[in-house]
Amino acid sequence: MAGTIQQLSESTVIRSLRRFRDRYFSTSGKVDNDFVDTDEEESQPGYLDSLPVDVQFLIMNFLSPADICHLGATSRYWRAMVRDPLLWRFFLLRDMPYWPSIDHLTMPQLELLDGPLVSENEILDDSEEGGDQGMESQVDYMAEYLKGCPSCRQKWLPSRPTYKVVTSFLQSLVPSSEPRYAMFGPGMEKLDVSLVTRLMHAPDVLPVSGTPHRQINGIGSGISYMFNNQHKFNILTLYSTNRAERERARVQQQDISNKLFTFEGSDDSGYPVYSPAPHVQQVCQVVDGFIYVANAEPGRDEGESEAAQIQAVLRSVWGSTSRPLLVLSCVSREETEAASTTSLQTSTSRNRARCRTACVHMAKRLGLPQLANPWMVQDTVAESLSGLLDGISWLLRCSGVKLYSS
Questions:
Q1: Please, which residues have CB within 8 angstroms of residue 112's CB and are 6 or more apart in sequence?
Q2: Mind listing the pLDDT tens digit for each residue in 215-241?
Q3: What is the pLDDT of residues 18-44, one digit of tens each?
Q4: What is the pLDDT of residues 171-197, one digit of tens each?
Q5: pTM of this prediction?
């Protein structure tokens, strides 16, 4: 996917901002009358306004998305400056590969990045004539960025009222059925570190609350875990074949026949079509959602078969598009050099190649934007289980479990 997106250099953004600034301020150093109301006094540019555009751009590089929006509220000049479409397209291309999660509500429209760049002259014309009206005709990269940026998403979560602490404790005393999830995918079988094994031996992350004796249509009971020392949930793992064959295929880096699905052929467009095995269909009918463990290590793309198998599982749940799908985009171990971005990191560290598939790229690879079910992709590390709790939290929320941010 990365090859289809036109990259955007810093020099292109600075050139666009400089041309806008030159038109905004007249040669006398005062604000151009085209940018102010006739009943307002002409104002002299402030100190920050007078800095070279290169420096202004550098300052914005060090600000968080919220701080950039606050900067836009300080003056008419900065309000127009921070709404430049090329600026936010640059931020989107720069930061999007480092977002640790993405879901069906916050996924950027990647097709907007596939098209040609808007010309600088067009941006200037729109910015000069009417401000907001001109911006409406452009692609709103700013909205796409703020919608998907994790630091902005966290602010939308409801806080936990004080009275909810007591209510939640009383609810925990009432027996209730625990949500059940079916977990499958190549990331369970082809990584050097087993996510399932680590999950069963990590009481500090997700304590095992027991293996229930009941069976799900004769398939087995799965393993129950305790989230946040309060909420029970059950995971039933579905492996593609027996353990000996899985281990041999992992060591020899070979593909194995997936006994969870039957290949039915291809559709008119050449897309593979699968149907779940009978025992998988039985599980799909009784679980509350699905966990797909994807292999996010470089060069481990399974091709179109991954997306086709996910769709086959969801299709087997007749009449329900509400069951959530959590995709754990998993690697074996942490990166040796932290490449995750923060608002204060330099562009050099942001541009360092990551040793994993980005969440937004994984979502497109698996065809998730085309699904009717709610979905989320979460970066996960098998060895440390980093990111797992965030994904489970989202999954429980989608299943109706009341969780609150601290």
A1: 139, 141, 144
A2: 554 455 689 999 988 899 999 999 888
A3: 888 888 775 445 555 554 444 444 456
A4: 545 555 789 999 999 999 889 899 999
A5: 0.80
